[in-house]
């Protein structure tokens, strides 16, 4: 299944000891261990104990879960060693399991693991910031033929640049990869024992299986056609062939006749085409001039990008000319090119930053098609599906799926919010559910009400729950009471509830932000005096539309900006003051737009950082505000 090459850095000056061991557990099931520690006396006993745990627990059946149980046993053993006053300073351990083409990897402290795939891309599949003294997560990967794995007892990112890693990824030979890394370590004068293992995955069994399949197909073909029926069919074919040859003269005459008809038709078509082209030439000239004039309007608009009136006037003239040409289905490539130029200059005018996909920003790849929201609970991301929650979402770690089996067949999750150590979820059937970190669900009851509100919106603050009524015109508050929640308390008075018309979403810092279906923003204060204040939105782009059902608002008391999800873009606003109670206006400072995919949801863990959910990815992007504009980093 694989070949491997081991290389130790022999020029080191430190006193660390390093041990490694390969274990063939079964056919196509192997394990490799690397240990290094300043305390050399403990290395061999610890390695032997780990080998015992692996041989006792791991086999082909449910390998991943048995590997997880084995790591728990190793953690317990290491903890007992520390309790006995053993010096385990900077203990680095790598353990990997290869089950056919399933690669499982776990580490302690600074150990690192990289994948070189068959596209010559290098990916770090170990958490580059994880420096823990026990095994916590298992990374997993499906290997394909000629994938290479680089394992080391140190964090290679600390001594190798991204350019070094890219150069290494293009080398085919494992020994040369190791020599290249060792050469860099020696140049950098790395004073520690460095153990490097390079694995080259070879899918020989797959090739053999394909070869066997081909041989079986070939044998089936021979057995199928080596019979009387096949021989009779061949004889009939030969008789028909002889009769056709006898009538060949007739056939040639028929072919010649049709050739004359076809030639006449082609000649007529050519003449018609030439005449049509001459008639259309003047028309084409007119529309070509329209394209030239449209480009001139775009040039003038670009010169007046700081003058909104002149910019919008010239862009409108260019768009009108382009529509005329497009309606005639002429010069479509030029039309598409000019429309792209207009889109780019509009984005510049409206301060829209384009976010491009790349592996450096990737948090997790998964099929998130049926998920609808990201939630942060105790600094870990959770993705909510229609009837389950997936967590924790950490780069290259195994994801858990917790399904609520008691949910009715015709019911599903519609919204969720984090509340201290739990996630509160609302359903389509007006039920409220609590999800705990141990993976369990529980229905929540409301006192002195027959049912909860029929609300698709729920938020929490200081243990309290905030929901909308089924008309989207009123905010209800529920407080914890006797293991349940109290009946609703109505926030808005009758006048405000009526004049807000339709509340699309709410969010809470110290007070409640309200966004209605006219895209007007308000802030509600319940104390010390009831009031509903309108928040002015400054410098908004012109001519934007929005979808009621694809809108979201995020702000918190630890955020300096307000973030609005609108038109598949993240709009960012800066308040006029850092004092939350005195906020009177918000100034638009830009948008972030995804280049490749549709954004399903986003979460802001802190200013300058956004976690984005799409159908296939969860990405983290960083940005900054400079000169009242957004810049993606």
Task: Describe the protein.
It is a single chain. With 633 residues, this protein is an alpha+beta fold. It folds into four domains: 2-202, 4-Layer Sandwich (Phosphatase 2c, domain 1), CATH 3.60.40; 208-246; 249-349, no CATH class; 355-632, 6 Propeller (Neuraminidase), CATH 2.120.10.30. The protein is 32% helix and 33% strand. The strands form eight sheets. Strands 11, 27, 28, 29, 30, 31, 32, 33 and 34 form a nine-stranded mixed β-sheet that branches. Strands 1-10-9-6-7 form a five-stranded antiparallel β-sheet, with helices on one face. A hairpin with a 2-residue loop joins strand 17 (413-419) and strand 18. Helix 1 (43-57) runs antiparallel to helix 2 and helix 7 packs antiparallel against helix 8 (308-327). The longest helix has 56 residues, at 248-303. Residues 8-15 and 205-211 have low confidence and may be disordered.
What's the helix and strand layout?
Blueprint: E1 2-8, E2 17-26, E3 29-37, H1 43-57, H2 63-83, E4 92-99, E5 102-108, E6 112-116, E7 122-124, E8 139-142, E9 148-152, H3 162-169, H4 174-187, E10 195-201, H5 204-225, H6 228-246, H7 248-303, H8 308-327, H9 332-349, E11 352-355, E12 362-365, E13 373-377, E14 380-384, E15 388-391, E16 400-403, E17 413-419, E18 422-427, E19 432-436, E20 441-444, E21 458-461, E22 464-468, E23 475-478, E24 480-481, E25 484-485, E26 489-490, H10 494-500, E27 503-508, E28 512-516, E29 521-525, E30 531-538, E31 552-554, E32 562-566, E33 569-575, E34 585-594, E35 601-606, E36 609-613, E37 617-626, E38 629-632
Parallel strand pairs: 11-34, 30-34
Antiparallel strand pairs: 1-10, 2-3, 3-4, 4-5, 5-8, 6-7, 6-9, 9-10, 12-37, 13-14, 14-15, 15-16, 17-18, 18-19, 19-20, 21-22, 22-23, 23-26, 24-25, 27-28, 28-29, 29-30, 31-32, 32-33, 33-34, 35-36, 36-37, 37-38
Helix pairs in contact: 1-2, 7-8, 7-9, 8-9
């Amino acid at each position: 299944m694989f070949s491997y090459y081991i290389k130790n850095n022999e020029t080191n000056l430190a006193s660390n000891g390093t041990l490694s061991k390969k274990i063939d557990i079964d056919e196509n099931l192997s394990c490799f261990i690397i240990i290094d520690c300043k305390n050399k006396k403990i290395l061999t006993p610890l390695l032997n104990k780990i080998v015992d745990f692996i041989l006792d627990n791991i086999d082909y059946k449910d390998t991943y879960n048995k590997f997880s149980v084995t790591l728990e046993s190793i953690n317990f053993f290491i903890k007992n060693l520390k309790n006995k006053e053993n010096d385990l300073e900077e203990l680095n351990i790598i353990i990997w399991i290869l089950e056919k083409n399933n690669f499982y990897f776990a580490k302690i402290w600074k150990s690192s693991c990289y994948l070189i795939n068959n596209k010559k891309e290098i990916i770090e599949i170990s958490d580059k910031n994880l420096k823990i003294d026990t095994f916590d997560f298992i990374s997993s990967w499906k290997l394909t033929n000629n994938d290479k794995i680089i394992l080391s007892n140190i964090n290679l990112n600390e001594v190798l640049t991204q350019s070094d890693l890219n150069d290494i990824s293009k080398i085919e030979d494992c020994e040369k990869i190791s020599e290249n890394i060792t050469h860099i370590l020696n140049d950098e004068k790395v004073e520690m024992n460095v153990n490097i293992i390079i694995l080259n995955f070879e899918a020989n069994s797959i090739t053999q299986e394909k070869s066997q399949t081909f041989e079986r197909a070939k044998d089936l073909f021979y057995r199928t056609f080596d019979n009387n029926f096949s021989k009779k069919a061949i004889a009939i074919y030969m008789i028909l062939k002889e009769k056709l040859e006898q009538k060949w003269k007739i056939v040639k005459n028929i072919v010649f006749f049709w050739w004359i008809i076809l030639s006449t038709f082609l000649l007529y078509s050519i003449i018609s085409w030439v005449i049509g082209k001459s008639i259309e030439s003047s028309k084409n000239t007119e529309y070509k001039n329209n394209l030239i004039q449209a480009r001139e309007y775009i040039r003038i608009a670009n010169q007046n990008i700081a003058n909104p009136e002149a910019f919008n006037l010239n862009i409108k003239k260019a768009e009108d000319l382009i529509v005329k040409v497009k309606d005639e289905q002429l010069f479509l490539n030029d039309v598409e090119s000019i429309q792209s130029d207009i889109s780019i200059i509009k984005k510049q005018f409206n301060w829209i930053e384009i976010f491009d996909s790349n592996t450096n920003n990737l948090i997790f790849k998964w099929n998130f098609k049926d998920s609808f929201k990201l939630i942060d609970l105790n600094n870990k991301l959770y993705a909510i599906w229609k009837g389950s929650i997936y967590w924790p979402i950490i780069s290259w770690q195994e994801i858990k799926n917790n399904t609520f089996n008691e949910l009715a067949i015709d019911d599903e999750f519609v919204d969720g919010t984090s509340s201290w150590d739990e996630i509160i979820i609302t359903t389509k059937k007006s039920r409220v559910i609590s999800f705990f970190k141990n993976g369990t669900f529980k229905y929540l009851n409301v006192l002195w009400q027959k049912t909860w509100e029929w609300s698709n919106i729920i938020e929490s603050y200081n243990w309290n729950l905030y929901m909308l009524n089924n008309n989207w015109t009123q905010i209800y508050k529920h407080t914890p009471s006797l293991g349940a929640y109290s009946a609703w308390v109505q926030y808005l008075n009758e006048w405000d509830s009526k004049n807000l018309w339709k509340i699309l979403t709410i969010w809470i810092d110290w007070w409640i932000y309200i966004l209605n279906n006219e895209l007007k923003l308000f802030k509600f204060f319940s104390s010390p005096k009831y009031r509903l204040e309108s928040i002015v939105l400054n410098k908004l782009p012109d001519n934007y539309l929005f979808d009621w059902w694809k809108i979201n608002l995020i702000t918190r008391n630890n955020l300096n900006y307000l973030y609005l999800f609108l038109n598949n873009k993240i709009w960012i606003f800066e308040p006029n003051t850092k004092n939350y109670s005195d906020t009177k206006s918000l100034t638009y400072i830009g948008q972030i737009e995804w280049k490749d995919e549709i954004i399903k949801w986003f979460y802001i863990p802190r200013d300058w950082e956004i976690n984005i959910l799409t159908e296939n990815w969860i990405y983290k992007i960083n940005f900054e505000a400079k000169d009242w504009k957004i810049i993606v980093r």
